[in-house]
From TrEMBL:
Annotated Pfam families: DUF11
Origin superkingdom: Bacteria
Organism annotation: Nocardioides szechwanensis
Keyword Nucleus listed: no
Signal peptide: 1-26
Name the record gives this protein: DUF11 domain-containing protein
Stretches assigned to the DUF11 domain: 380-487
UniProt keyword list: Signal
Key word Signal present: yes
Length: 493
């Protein structure tokens, strides 16, 4: 080969040799089938099963095989999973909302979401139905996992050895935000059981604006630890603006129906602007050598976490039952008169677990839910140009556009320069005196208005102004909506 040919080949090959290799671009996958089929060909970057549809399993398998950070979007649907979904790469799994996108276990004992590595974000889904041995709804063994706006509910882990669950992190970093962990159980028949709601081992976990409620941990012949939260060896758990309530421990030896603190090693549990309440079978707190640290202001209904102090108020919490109080996840909202109302040291977030604005009345409420209604008054008349001395009908309405019911609702109607003859309302009562009617409406639910019909007698002449004002027990989001007016101009005979 001549020297000239060698030079030409070198010039041609040089760019190929020296050019850097770019990583594969991140991919986005949209699920279009609720089947549980796997991807047909991982060498092909398309999400496609053997029947050419994109399932959540196939999409996650493709994401694991693709370099970069991927997004899997799941529309409103219920998906029955016969085995865990394993996530091992940077991934965002985005549902249409926890009440709309449901991941449910089927086909025997298994977990649901298994995160082994990567930066992973899961939002807008419900994870439910995991049963039997090793049935962890969400299991993290490494990486950085964020759960936002999800429901982990009605999962049941059990076994003869130590049982953990249903949300269990080991050697990872986890953030749980705006979520609900409820109605789950963890049972061991012959050994210890750990964490009815959240189990943490050698990990760092941040819980914000989240409700951990009505979970149970049971051990047939040993110890049950942490009905709501178990913080194990070398674990750091931070609970902020969260509600841990109504959790149960059941065993010959029980520790911490609400929160159980580290058994040893390093780590800590810090609680701020939260509510710990209504423990069943045990106390709110128990510690295996360390005591939770309380910051800001908190509300508890026993002294197991320490005596009353600047950071701990001891007293009745008056929480409502766990229910759909608006938003994508269930909450326990403080009732009127609760010590949780307007008691937080700071507002950690601009909204509560449901997305309702914080604060509503001056200061934020303790716990995951900000109690408040959005009452609005409206009023109209049947005749805006009545004759002198005639009678007309006015309709005054109390509406509620907030997430929480308005209780002890009052509606006051004043007819300036006219006389109120009568006032009637369905589901309430009214008292009439002169030009005013004062009505007790009881509870006004969101989207269910209550109307008062009034008979008014007009004066001989002039302008009549009818004003309606609404109030209630809850703090009000928009006080400017609390009053309304209607006018009538009397025609002389």
């Amino acid at each position: 080969m001549t020297r000239r040919v060698l030079i030409v080949l070198a010039l041609v090959l040089a760019p190929l040799t020296l050019a850097p290799v770019s990583p594969a671009a991140a991919a986005g996958f949209t699920v279009n089938s609720n089947s549980d089929a796997a991807d047909a060909d991982l060498s092909d970057p398309a999400c496609a099963t053997a029947t050419s549809v994109c399932t959540v399993r196939a999409a996650i398998q493709q994401a694991n095989a693709t370099a970069g950070s991927d997004v899997v979007t799941v529309p409103a649907m219920t998906i029955s999973l016969g085995s865990p979904l394993t996530i091992s790469s940077n991934l965002t799994l985005r549902g249409a909302g926890a009440r709309s996108t449901i991941l449910q276990a089927t086909g025997g004992a298994h977990g649901m979401l298994l995160v082994t590595s990567g930066v992973v974000n899961v939002s807008g889904v419900t994870v439910t139905g995991a049963t039997g041995g090793g049935a962890l709804a969400v299991y993290q063994s490494g990486g950085d996992l964020t759960l936002q706006g999800i429901r982990v509910t009605n999962n049941s882990a059990s076994g003869a050895g130590g049982a953990y669950g249903p949300v269990y992190t080991m050697n990872g970093t986890m953030t749980v935000r705006d979520s609900e962990i409820s109605g789950n159980s963890t049972t061991s028949t012959s050994s210890n059981a750990f964490g009815g709601g959240l189990s943490v081992y050698s990990s760092t976990v941040t819980v914000l604006n989240t409700t951990i409620a009505d979970n149970t941990v049971m051990a047939g012949s040993a110890q049950a630890l942490g009905g709501g939260v178990w913080a194990g060896l070398n674990s750091t758990v931070t609970l902020t603006s969260s509600t841990v309530a109504g959790n149960t421990v059941s065993a010959p030896s029980t520790f911490g129906a609400g929160v159980f603190q580290n058994m040893g090693g390093t780590g800590s549990v810090e609680v701020s602007d939260s509510v710990l309440a209504l423990p069943q079978g045990g106390t709110n707190c128990a510690a295996g050598g360390k005591t939770p640290v309380f910051l800001g202001r908190n509300l508890l209904d026993d002294t197991s976490c320490g005596a009353a102090a600047a950071t701990r108020t001891i007293g009745p919490t008056r929480l409502g039952a766990l229910a759909n109080n608006g938003g994508q996840t269930n909450t326990r909202v403080p009732a009127p008169g609760s010590l949780a109302l307007n008691a937080a040291s700071t507002c950690a977030t601009p909204t509560d677990q449901r997305g309702q604005a914080r604060p509503i009345a001056g200061k934020c409420d303790l716990g995951a839910a900000e109690s408040g209604s959005n009452r609005k008054a409206a009023v109209s008349v049947s005749n805006r140009k009545p004759s002198a001395g005639s009678d007309i009908i006015a309709t005054a309405t109390a509406l509620n556009r907030g997430l929480d019911h308005s209780t002890s609702t009052r509606l006051t109607v004043t007819a300036f320069r006219a006389k109120v003859l009568s006032a009637t309302v369905l589901g309430g009562s009214c008292r009439v005196s002169g030009n005013r009617a004062t009505c007790k409406l009881g509870t006004v639910a969101k989207g269910t208005p209550k109307r008062v019909l009034l008979a008014l007698r007009m004066p001989a002449s002039g302008r009549v102004v009818i004003t309606a004002k609404v109030g209630g027990a809850q703090a009000d989001q928009v006080k400017a909506n609390n009053s309304a007016t209607a006018k009538a101009v009397v025609r002389a005979r």
